[in-house]
Every structure is written in C-alpha cells, then in structure tokens.
Recover the amino acids of this structure.
C-alpha cells in the first residue's frame, strides 16, 4: 500500500484542525456554561390548561427570590403567549416553553435565545439579555399556513426600569 | 461490451432525475418571487407551501435517488465488466420507486401534503404521501441489493484483487443508504402511516424527530458520494492526469460512511427531547466527518495539479490555468470546490454546539444547504450528465459551449441567491416563511436581500432550462457517437491492499456498534419515561 508523505502530513493537519474545533466547542460547552436546551422533561400538551405550571394564569414572568427571572410561555398556532412581555437586561432569565399543538421553533434575533418547541416536552433555555430594546420573537419551524404570522414582542429594559415597573405592577403585560 | 440494456436502464433513471429537476427549478423561481412580497397578485400561502413541499421532495428525494441509481448501475457495469445483475429485478425497483413518486405527487400537488420535505409530525399529510415516499425508498433498496450482489459476484471471481475504486465507492453508498434509510423507515412505518390512517391516535413528536435525525445527516452523504466518486475516478482522467492516491480515496469513502451515520443530533442541538451529553457526542462525531472531506479536497486538488502540470502548466498556480476549463466535468469540479469552501465554512458554524443557536432554523440554513447541495453536489451531477449523455445515447453532445455557459450560470446564480440568504439568516429571518408580516423595524433591513435573491433565482432557472434542453437535444440528435466511460488511473498502481480497505465487513460491525452507542439509549429513553403523544393536526 502506498500513501504519499504529503498525504500523511495533510491527514495530520486535518486531524489537528478538527481537534482544535472540538476542543473549543467542548471548552465553551463545559466551562462557559453554553448549553443548548436539553432538559428532557415531558408534559401533556393536550392538558396544558389543567397543568400546575402552564395554565393561563401562570404564564408570563415570575421573579425568583435569588433575583433571577423565569418566563413561562405557550406556543400555539399562531403566536407565543403572552403576546407582550417586558424583561430586565443583565439578569439571569430562564425561559420555559411548551407547545399546545404542533412543533414550533422560536428565536429572538441578535440573541442566543433559540429553541425548538416540541409538543409533549418542555423546552428550557437560560440566557442573559444584554441590550435594551424591542425584540420580536419569531417562529422558525414551519407549523402550518400561518407560520409567517407567528410572532410576538419582547421589550427589554434596564434592570432599574424593570424593578420600577414591577413595583407598580403590570410588567407581565407590558 | 454489449451493454445496450444497461445504457437504457441508466438513461431512464437519469431522465426521471432531470425531469424532476427541471420541474422543481421552475417552482424554485416562483417561490423566491412569491416570498419577496413585491408581486401582490402571486401571493398565496396555500400554493407557496404546496410548491415548497414539492420542490423539496423533487430535488432532495427524486433527483438524487434516481440519479444515484442510474449512475450506480452504469458504474457497476463498466468498472466490473459485468452485466447488471437480474435486470427484471432492477427494473422492478425502478417501477416501485416511480410509482411511489407518482403517488406522493398527487397529494403534494393538490395541497394535501404541504408538510415540507421534512414532514415533521404532528403536522399530518394525506396518507398517500407517506405511502408514496415509502415506495420510493423501497425501490431504492432494490438498487442497493443489486449493487451489493454485483460487488460480491466480482469479488468471488477476483479473489484478493482490489475492487475498482468507483465500484468500491458505489457499494459504500449502497451500504450507507441501507443504514441511513432505516431511521426514517421506522418512523414512517411504525409512527406516521399507522397514525395517518387512524390506526393509532397519537404520535410522539420527539421520538419521530430522533428517528428522522438518524436519517437526516447521512442522507446528504448518500447524495454526495456520486459527486465524490466523480471527483476521484472521472475528473482526473478528464483533466488529462491521474488520481493522486487510490488508497486514500478508499479511506475517505470508508470514513464518510462510518462517521456520517452516528452524528445526526447536530440537527437536534436546539431540541428539548435529547440531553446535552448525547448532543455533544454527536457534535464531536460531526467534526470527525470533516476529515474525509479535508482528505478529498487535498487528493482531488493534487490530482488536478498533476493534470495541469502534464498539460504544461508551470509555477505555483500556473497549473490551474492549464486545466481544460472547457471540459464540463473539469469546470464542474472547479466551481463545485469553490462552493464547497464557502459551504463548508457555513457547515462548521452550524456544527458548532454554541454558535448554532445564532443561526438555527434561520434563512442561513436554507442558504447553506442550497449552496452545498444545490451547488457542490448537483453541479457535479451536471458534469456527469454531460459526460454520460453521449455515451448512453450514442450521440454527441448537442452543444458543448452551452454546457459550459450552463455550469457558469449555475454557479453565478447560486452565489447570487445563497449569499443574501445567509445574510438574511444572520439578520434573524426565520426559514420557511412565505411572506414578511412582522411589525418590526428589523424587517426593513431584509428587503434588499430578498430582491437580490430573485435575480439569483432567475439565473438558476435559465441555467436549469439550458441543461435539460441540451440533454434533450442530444438525445434526439442524428449523428452517432462511440465512446465508453474512462476511469482515472492512480499514479501508483494499487497493490497489497489491506483487507480493511477492500471490504465492508469490519466497517458494518463498527457502524453497528457506533449506532448502538449514538442512538441506543436516546431512542430507548422514549420507552422508559412517561411520554405524551400528539393528535393529528392539519396544515
């Protein structure tokens, strides 16, 4: 069997390149806490209205005692509910998403808030939003004829503003 | 060699492939115009999604499968110097696959299967769509059996001899496809069809996505292997040179088959039904499968350099100018490799566990696979078609200069269409939207790119027309042409080939173990935890 020396060298270089990429990815996954949503948690999508966590009056923003925020959202054709939210910047936010019908996907452009929302499962994403502004939430998985009409709004405000809004009430409903 | 029957078999498969291609290309132009929103009278989401679903099925499943089958039959016949085994069996496979296409086309064109070519449940299509798709796959299994039987026949008659490289690659692809299609076959047979027919009431969308992910990555290598086969075994000869290394080519094909299978979860990075550890395992495998592509890039470019220098090219880059740029197959590989560089870069972004969150399911993804599949993979299908048509029809190519113009226009059109598509993704545009309705300032930044894409689509559809017209006129030509496929010789003759580079027994065991590790528990988990299925949802 004949393998040219150049080819052996190139195979080594290729292995090095792939190894470098893998190291960077594993580094970011393990040491920077960058994680794709992967909580493997099941829920009966047909009975969300009866569930302890995702009944209509439980949706939206919840402040946790440690200062972090949990956001519970239902995706359904064609929107993400509640439709308008105001969230604080520079705060640890955990989104919990469920679908009441088919598969959806959601992302906030220019942020790393992105997940698939598969019926039967709760999709959990943890992130920090750094910049104040008006963001759309967009459905990014084809879910039927109204797919392009499936969106809602998130307003990100500074932490101080958000605290002020909260003491007046109404932050949940923008 | 009397191979009239083989020629007819291959040509018939090719015509189904390129017929589907021509139709799907026209749909593509309609889609890019419709979604721009500049032509109000065209707006119809029902027609749009029926069209997108049909376009995807025709390009992704029909063009590819029929092209691969036709190519495989002819490669087997000409490399092994054996008649195609049991032609009735081969034609039966063709008939089953074609019946499947016709059945699936009915609900697709009637808007009863607007579930796109990924058909994720619980969106439900008409049952005939799933049955048709199944028959297409079953028909392709006939081809897999034919390829494996012919490979065994030859090995038995030539013990210890290296299997000709093009046939080694084709057999690798047949084996790859059997492994690959198993995932979606289980999904369709045990989940989708019983559910669509009403035999079961609910379906686990998470399990369905997991099974689909089994198929979703290696299927692109099933499409790519004929392209790589041409890179290694046809192009060097057409360029006027030799293959740099036969052994490394075999190693690359084996790596492609083994490592493209256990890595499908990079399509599920953003999914909630699989845990981090499995995703990271598949992420690592995804980078391993870049190795055979790195090797291929080196070996085929080295082969081209040999050709360029034999043609009198001098200096560091002079050999590039000395290549026969007016040979369709050589031009196809040059343009294909250019698109592979950009598409491969995009693929590395997608494969990166964290960066993926920024591009997942955005327009970037559609741009990526149009560039790497519609670009790199398909342009070589064109190169092969221009080379095979005169051989299969016995008539000279109708217009060689039109072939060259067609390849350039395909490349230019693809660049003009996919570059804005990538940018739209980075600007947050979701994939698969038929119109822009978001009340947000962000969408204003999308408009110039939507306009640019239309020009790309126009060039591509003209290019597709030139291809089909040229092949059609060749077929109808009156002059005669005598020629047979010529395969490239390696610069070093292959001798003392170790068994593991000339047989798939070991590799099938390795694949089995890898698949058990990569998919065993991730599939089993759905039966160990309490899951909740979904009912039937229309579009």
């Amino acid at each position: 069997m004949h393998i040219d020396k150049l080819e052996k060298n190139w195979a080594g270089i290729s292995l090095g390149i792939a190894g470098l990429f893998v190291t960077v990815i594993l580094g970011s996954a393990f040491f920077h806490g960058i994680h794709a949503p992967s909580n493997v948690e099941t829920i009966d999508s047909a009975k969300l209205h009866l569930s302890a966590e995702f009944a209509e009056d439980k949706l939206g923003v919840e402040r946790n005692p440690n200062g972090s925020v949990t956001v519970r959202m239902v995706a359904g054709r064609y929107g993400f509910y509640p439709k308008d939210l105001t969230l604080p910047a520079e705060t640890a936010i955990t989104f919990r998403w469920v679908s009441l019908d088919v598969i959806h996907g959601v992302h906030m452009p220019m942020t790393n808030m992105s997940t698939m929302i598969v019926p039967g499962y709760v999709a959990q994403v943890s992130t920090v939003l750094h910049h104040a502004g008006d963001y759309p939430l967009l459905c990014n998985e084809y879910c039927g004829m109204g797919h392009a009409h499936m969106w809602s709004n998130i307003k990100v405000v500074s932490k101080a503003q958000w605290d002020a809004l909260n003491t007046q009430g109404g932050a949940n409903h923008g | 060699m009397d191979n009239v029957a083989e020629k007819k078999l291959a040509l018939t498969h090719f015509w189904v492939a390129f017929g589907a291609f021509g139709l799907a290309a026209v749909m593509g132009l309609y889609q890019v115009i419709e979604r721009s929103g500049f032509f109000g009278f065209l707006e119809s989401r029902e027609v749009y999604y029926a069209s997108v679903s049909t376009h995807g099925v025709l390009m992704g499943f029909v063009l590819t499968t029929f092209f691969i089958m036709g190519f495989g039959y002819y490669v087997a016949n000409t490399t092994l110097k054996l008649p195609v085994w049991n032609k009735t069996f081969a034609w039966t496979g063709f008939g089953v696959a074609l019946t499947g296409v016709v059945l699936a086309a009915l609900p697709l064109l009637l808007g009863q299967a607007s579930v796109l070519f990924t058909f994720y449940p619980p969106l439900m299509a008409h049952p005939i769509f799933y049955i048709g798709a199944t028959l297409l796959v079953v028909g392709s299994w006939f081809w897999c059996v034919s390829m494996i039987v012919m490979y065994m026949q030859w090995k038995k008659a030539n013990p210890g001899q290296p299997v000709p490289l093009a046939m080694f690659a084709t057999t690798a692809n047949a084996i790859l496809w059997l492994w690959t299609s198993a995932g979606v076959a289980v999904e369709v047979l045990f989940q989708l069809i019983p559910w669509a027919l009403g035999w079961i009431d609910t379906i686990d969308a998470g399990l369905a996505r997991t099974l689909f992910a089994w198929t979703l990555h290696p299927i692109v290598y099933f499409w790519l292997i004929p392209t790589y086969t041409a890179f290694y075994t046809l192009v060097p000869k057409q360029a006027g040179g030799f293959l740099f290394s036969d052994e490394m080519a075999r190693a690359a094909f084996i790596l492609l088959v083994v490592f493209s299978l256990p890595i499908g979860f990079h399509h599920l990075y953003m999914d909630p039904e699989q845990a981090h550890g499995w995703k990271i395992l598949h992420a690592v495998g995804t980078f391993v499968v870049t190795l055979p592509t790195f090797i291929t890039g080196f070996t085929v470019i080295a082969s081209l350099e040999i050709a360029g220098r034999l043609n009198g090219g001098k200096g560091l880059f002079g050999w590039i100018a000395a290549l026969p740029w007016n040979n369709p197959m050589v031009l196809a590989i040059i343009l294909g490799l250019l698109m592979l560089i950009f598409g491969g870069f995009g693929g590395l972004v997608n494969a990166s566990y964290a960066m993926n969150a920024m591009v997942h399911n955005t327009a970037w993804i559609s741009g990526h696979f149009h560039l790497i599949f519609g670009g790199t993979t398909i342009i070589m299908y064109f190169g092969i078609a221009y080379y095979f048509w005169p051989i299969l029809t016995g008539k000279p190519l109708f217009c060689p200069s039109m072939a060259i113009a067609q390849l350039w226009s395909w490349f230019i059109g693809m660049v003009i269409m996919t570059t804005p598509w990538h940018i739209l993704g980075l600007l947050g545009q979701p994939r698969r939207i038929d119109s822009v309705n978001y009340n947000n300032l962000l969408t204003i930044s999308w408009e110039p790119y939507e306009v640019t894409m239309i020009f790309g689509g126009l060039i591509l559809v003209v290019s597709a027309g030139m291809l089909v017209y040229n092949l059609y006129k060749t077929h109808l030509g009156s002059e005669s042409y005598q020629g047979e496929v010529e395969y490239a010789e390696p610069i070093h003759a292959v001798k003392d080939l170790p068994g593991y580079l000339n047989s798939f027994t070991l590799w099938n065991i390795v694949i089995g173990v890898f698949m058990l590790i990569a998919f065993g528990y991730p599939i089993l988990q759905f039966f160990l935890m309490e899951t909740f299925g979904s009912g039937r949802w229309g579009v």
Observations:
- Helices of chain A lie at 5-31, 159-168.
- The mean pLDDT of chain A is 91.
